[in-house]
Write a structure and sequence with these properties.
alpha/beta; TIM Barrel; 10 strands; globular
Length: 231
Amino acid sequence: MGGVLLGLLSEGPRLIASLPRNSPELARAAADGGAEALKVHLNVTHQASGTHFGSLCEEREALEAILAVGLPTGIVPGTGERLPSREEMCELSAMGFDFFDLFARDMPAWMASFDGMTRTAAVDPGFPLDSVPELAALGLEIIEAAVVRPEGYGRPVSIGDIAVYRRLRRVTELPIIVPTERAIQPEDVPALIEDVGVNAIMIGAVVTGREAQPLRASTKRFAAAISAIRD
């Protein structure tokens, strides 16, 4: 279908902020820092941030306030243990979410043709790279390269990581988002964008912290690094 984020990615590398909590204050801090899109979560305990995100009923008020910030916003609507129904996905679309993001291993087959939001598949360390081209054939529109094992979260990005990202880039023409599972730094951005060819960096708790002030400061540093390449 093609949403706002997908259009932005076609124009140059972008910065996405994955919020460590569904907090309007954090959304505003990310926007102030130069984030160009946001991502939030439902029905999941996020490993990198250690935060539990509740149901739509529990999180709705905060999510509506985050959407009111005005940036294109995506949502992880659940995990393998708690996946959304078609009705819930339609409700999220009606609320104004621009894209959804689920691990390919968890995503129900019917979601590949859901046209209410841009369809994003996260590829985990166990997903075979030779199957990645099939995701586009099935209707997915963006790839999230969530290829770091949990025990590696927070460590510096390595040449091995760069090699995996490059291999992923070679097997798909879809836009690729790299999340900060590793402690990616602004000085790593040129290698990821210029050498690998990723389309967006998605910063999260590993590099932003969990409070507004450090999140805003971290976002500014990454926004400057990406802007220097794009401009």
